[in-house]
Amino acid sequence: MSLFESPFFQDAFSQLESAGATMKMDPNVLERLKYPKRALQVSVPVRLDDGTVKVFEGYRVQHSLTLGPGKGGIRYHPHVSLSETAALAMLMTFKCALVGLPLGGAKGGIKVDPTDMSRAELQAMTRRYTTEIAMIIGPDKDVPAPDIGTDGQTMAWLMDTYSQLKGYAVPGVVTGKPVAIGGSLGRAESTGKGVVFCINFAYEKLNQKITNSTTVAIHGFGKVGMPAAHDLHSQGAKIVAISDVSGAIYNAKGLNIPAATEWVRNRKLLRDLPDCEHITNEQLLELDVDILIPAAIDGVVTKDNAHKVKARMIAEGANGPLTHEAVDIITDRGGLIIPDILCNAGGVIVSYFEWVQGLQMFFWDLDTVNKKLHDIMKTAFDVVWKAKDTYKCNMKQAAFISSLSRIEGAMKLRGMWPG
Ligand code: NAD
Predict the structure, then answer these.
(1) Which residue's CA is the closest to the ligand 1 atom numbered 23?
(2) Is 378 a catalytic residue?
(3) Is the C-alpha dihedral spanning 371, 372, 375, 381 positive or negative?
(4) Of 67, 68, 138, 354, which sees the most CB atoms within 10 A?
(5) What are the tens digits of pLDDT across the range 342-360?
(6) What is the CATH number of domain 3-170?
(7) What pTM was computed for the model?
(8) Contacts (Cβ under 8 Å, ≥6 apart) of 34
(9) Which of 99, 148, 191 to mutate to test the pocket of ligand 1 (most atoms within 8 A of CB)?
């Protein structure tokens, strides 16, 4: 098994190299950032409901701890691999640095389809996985959060298992927990809210506004896509298409987002939603809309379909939904891309707030959380926009450059041991 085996890692690697070359980064620092600091592979045995034992493959990768404890989600998905987890951990390093958090980059996951498992099986798997990675996580070491296929309940089991091992409650070991056990108000919607903040900032720069004729398509109606749909819907935009793993629904006049939300929250698939026009996920990506939000998985727009993507603005809600070739094709034809490490940073920013609140045992109201989220995202957006103009590059490269400048400064100050 190699770090380079997934196209996602290769893509993150080449984006790093290209941004490093554009900003003339110190080659010794660049060399260190190409590889994760630490990667742990674990076997996770689970007794299934039928009495048999099945062993799942799990990972926790820490890409960089230069700026602080590792931060990054835990993914339950059949495509999880060391290579994909390492790529996601690398992106977390860049994301945390870009928005100025005192945190490094990490990621974890289990290669599993969680939709095939009962609640008892999921709990057993989460608790065993936590035990296996307990040696490298902790409030001062590495703080996991939810990602694809995991949620607040998963984080509650993780926090409880870690706390059982320590003998006392350790809320700071995870973020994305339910509010009742030390979670932060606003965390659940934070990533989608941040996506919409970025769309509004971009419209301001372009001297445009969201109106009731602004059309939006959202690929992935989950923890990121759903709150983004809500905020845009409440600003008056027309959400013409949304999708999940089963397919997409479309209405040129605008979908009923509250009804679709209710349906999905009841664990039903969009393909079964009655009285609407069904299209494929691929067709959704190619719709002629003002804003496309890919908020499902990585690598959905590549050099093979980028020419067919017509959206004027693409807000990367997911991590790595566009390959770097797709980014070049779309920016060359004048499309504006708000890059993942900026666009979806709302989640890690409010995770940071949750961690701080947990350490202080002092909790903030929702307005405070959202105001601070807005201000941090605005500052980061302006930094990236300025770097785009300074380096005459696209927003994706500008985001990498802005982030790498911060990391380069910190790594040089800390030096290397032994030197
Ligand atoms: P989620 O599991 O809540 O939702 C994912 C959505 O995508 C679901 O609607 C699912 O049905 C759909 N989906 C899954 N596989 C698909 C496929 N092959 N084709 C089309 N749709 C598919 O996950 P999430 O937390 O919303 O994460 C989505 C993306 O956002 C991921 O890339 C994740 O890393 C990234 N992200 C999440 C957060 C967060 O706070 N949750 C923060 C930053 C980035």
Answers:
(1) 148
(2) no
(3) negative
(4) 354
(5) 999 999 999 999 999 999 9
(6) 3.40.50.10860
(7) 0.97
(8) 13, 16, 17
(9) 148
Same fold, 3-170 and 190-338: yes
Give the position of tokens 């050099």: 303
What pLDDT, in 10s, does the model give residues 382-403? 999 999 999 999 999 999 999 9
Query: Any residues with CB less than 8 A from the CB of 330 and at least 6 apart, and which?
Result: 301, 306, 309, 314, 322, 337
pLDDT band at 162 (very low <50, low <70, confident <90, very high): very high
What is the C-alpha separation between 172 and 394, in angstroms, rounded?
A: 37
Ligand 1 centroid, distance to 23 Cα (angstroms): 32
pLDDT value, residue 419? 81
Query: For position 383, what pLDDT does the model report?
Result: 98
Residue 4 pLDDT class (50, 70, 90 cuts): confident
Give the CATH number of domain 190-338.
3.40.50.720
148 lines ligand 1 (CB under 6 A): yes
pLDDT attached to residue 1:
64
Alpha carbon distance 106, 61 (integer Å): 5
Ligand 1 in reach of 247 Cβ (< 6 A)? no
